[in-house]
Amino acid sequence: MVPGPSPPATGYDQAYQFQDDPGQQTPRAVSPIVQNPYPYGNTINQRLNDRGYGTSHMQQQNDMWNSFVVEHSSRFQPGEVFKIYWSEPLGNGMNATVRSYMQRGEKFHYSFRRFIVVANDEGHCTCVPILTYGHQACTKRGVKPQKHGIVHALGTRPRRLEGEPDLGFDPVRLELTERTEKLDKESRVNYAKLVTIEHNYRVFFIGRILNSDFLNIVTPAVDQCWHNKNRHHR
Question: pTM, whole model, 2 decimals?
Answer without folding.
Answer: 0.71
